[in-house]
């Protein structure tokens, strides 16, 4: 394992400033000739987690966390050449030390720590500090350069306590049961769906899933995450079974005829975007539950400050705002423009990504 | 305000009418009458004037949350609602404020109006720190005079009607005009209907509103069952003369008696116990003036002799609701019309120059009427109103007896050049657009429009705007000229305030012309031609 990427062949290395730069294919470590979450096919890809906007197909070799391997296989290709590394273990790639540390985002999500000649970078992928029963808790890593997301980087985003949200979800479910309605809850198939399940009151009733959700839920169970029993909705022939049941489906199912089978129903959407009423109305669901797998504003600031980084690179969502705020409060922050391949913003939305993160040109990280 | 906040949250969370009605019923069943009266007041769309300026609320929220002002502004652009932004910026306290709604409004909020900034700040920041996010939102809405929660008065009345078993029409009528939100008032709304005359003299009747007819009127059956009237574009008004006093109400239930002294003075000459329904129109030499002329009068507190002579008004009367003190709304329209004709005929000449009965347009059949409708623009009207001769005067928007049969709008193909985020449900999408037409090889802005696209189209345009922004000016983005839309509008006028030299009325997006390139968009000359033909029609 130690020399996994070395077998991919030696490269000509020429040191030019920072250890990690942004190229047209994504975050790149020239010294180790690998990319982190590349958006164009490359030889060596290190993935922070298996969400579609971080785990693109077509790379020759992948390195992911051990607990994230199964999810990556489902999302990428069962035959993909995937090597794994436990949290906290270090591998060396052309002299560059690489290790994974829990990001608290979804099962197997990691911050990628990269060290070369005493210079430490952490690419945190997506992360949250709020405890989550379905994945390992976020671990703060000190570094010189910290790459952070800013999906919810405005002070209006402050997550209510998770317990309160689960109470709301269960109360909503109970009320629907009383009215004989099915509860259709839209949640991103990977991560959010399972987190929602973990908070359901198991005495209330049965839980059915959309196919996209079921497969990933199985992977969660196989990884040892304790989740309520679920049944793939497509396997049910007697539609009466759905009355009073909880149905977990990806947001893309919202406008589909797939929903008809559930009869009288109440719909809800679980997402951090539900914090703002306008966003909820736009979703046109009966209820919005504020449940996010990203850091809210206080968490972002806490996480960033704890790294004691000299430079903070901010990407995604409200990056300009977070950068300006950090700079005004005595930190050195730089925006990092990310680019998405393809033009279908809707599948990005499905992973709770900021839909407008499309920039014309990938800019290099400012060298210091 | 715990119960009221809960109601607000429930109403805000559902888009289903039945659930909204149920939530209101649930509330009114449990609320104290004094609270229920205020709840009815707010839910039916009334609001006290702003108690504390939003500017102050913003300053205090910025101070309390410790963020810089620019970050507040960014946040507000995303939320698109000042009250909500302020509510969200502060920590979500668990404590639920138990103050009853009427105590909050009468003893805490209303007395704050006019008190000094220090007192206001102390009261507001204390309240904020004790409230959770939802309560803070409701509180902010109430205090800044911006309360609204997506229910119509009609829905509130429906909930009350279900609760009390008093018919909807009766409650609607009882809730018209001016009243104070007291427990007594709330009782009077729901007391059993004993059929006695309970009308305070100023109280207007609920307006009967019409739907637009889709397609043509051929489905309506025999034309002889219908009366066709020109559809005027003015201000719908009800003129009441009772016990020597005159009250004039707009459809929005604003008392507008003082705005139109010509009509109010004439109404004083009417017999007591008379209520007319009609349209206030700016009128000179037997012709209606453009609506924009009327707008010049509406905004003014003091009507100068100049404006009164430049924009005199009349009332096109089209219905009679009360005659000699009797509510005659249940009589059929044919009979009411005959009574109205008799009443107007009996008036002296100078009153008849103010109260003009709306002409009934005779036609042999629907095709004939369609031909006559083509004269609409020449006459300065919007088409026809079709009214079933056998119908009573109904309450609210009712399908079947009154129809609007409007002429097709004027249209041009224009290019999207600026976009701005929308409000409410669309607060995260670019939905407010500015369109341009060609002039000497340049695109000049000519109209702004918001409505008319489907949600799917909005998403497409939104994505386009984000990917093709040229420059950002505050909330407005200029975009690459590429998308063409067909824009419809009702009327057109010369304007010195607009770059294009014209102002259009009711612009809206008719369709997304994905098949057209910007070169195929219309030019300002096309619009000037429309302007000419439009104005030539008016001597």
Provide a compact summary of the structure:
The complex is a heterodimer of chains A (368) and B (539). Chain A has helices at 69-75, 162-178, 192-199, 211-222, 277-283, 297-307, 319-328, 345-350, and strands at 20-23, 26-29, 34-36, 44-46, 61-65, 81-85, 90-93, 96-102, 110-116, 119-123, 145-149, 182-186, 207-209, 230-232, 246-249, 265-270, 287-289, 311-315, 333-335.
Notable characteristics:
heterodimer; A: 368 residues; alpha/beta; Metallo-beta-lactamase, Chain A; Rossmann fold; 2 domains; 7-stranded mixed β-sheet; 6-stranded mixed β-sheet; 21% helix; globular; disordered N terminus; disordered C terminus; B: 539 residues; alpha+beta; DNA ligase i, domain 1; D-amino Acid Aminotransferase, Chain A, domain 1; OB fold (Dihydrolipoamide Acetyltransferase, E2P); 7-stranded antiparallel β-sheet; 21 helices; 23 strands; 38% helix; 23% strand
Describe this structure in words.
The complex is a heterodimer of chains A (368) and B (539). Chain A is an alpha/beta fold. Chain A has helices at 69-75, 162-178, 192-199, 211-222, 277-283, 297-307, 319-328, 345-350, and strands at residues 20-23, 26-29, 34-36, 44-46, 61-65, 81-85, 90-93, 96-102, 110-116, 119-123, 145-149, 182-186, 207-209, 230-232, 246-249, 265-270, 287-289, 311-315, 333-335. In chain A, the strands form three sheets. A seven-stranded mixed β-sheet of chain A has the order 7-8-9-10-11-18-19, covered by helices on one side. The longest helix of chain A is centred in the middle third of the chain and has 17 residues, at 162-178. Residues 1-17 and 340-368 of chain A have low confidence and may be disordered. Chain B has 539 residues and is of the alpha+beta class. Chain B folds into three domains: 2-143, Orthogonal Bundle (DNA ligase i, domain 1), CATH 1.10.3260; 208-405, D-amino Acid Aminotransferase, Chain A, domain 1, CATH 3.30.470.30; 410-536, OB fold (Dihydrolipoamide Acetyltransferase, E2P), CATH 2.40.50.140. In chain B, 38% of the residues lie in helices and 23% in strands. Chain B has 21 helices and 23 strands. Classes of the chains: A alpha/beta (368), B alpha+beta (539). The interface between A and B is medium-sized, with 27 and 34 residues.
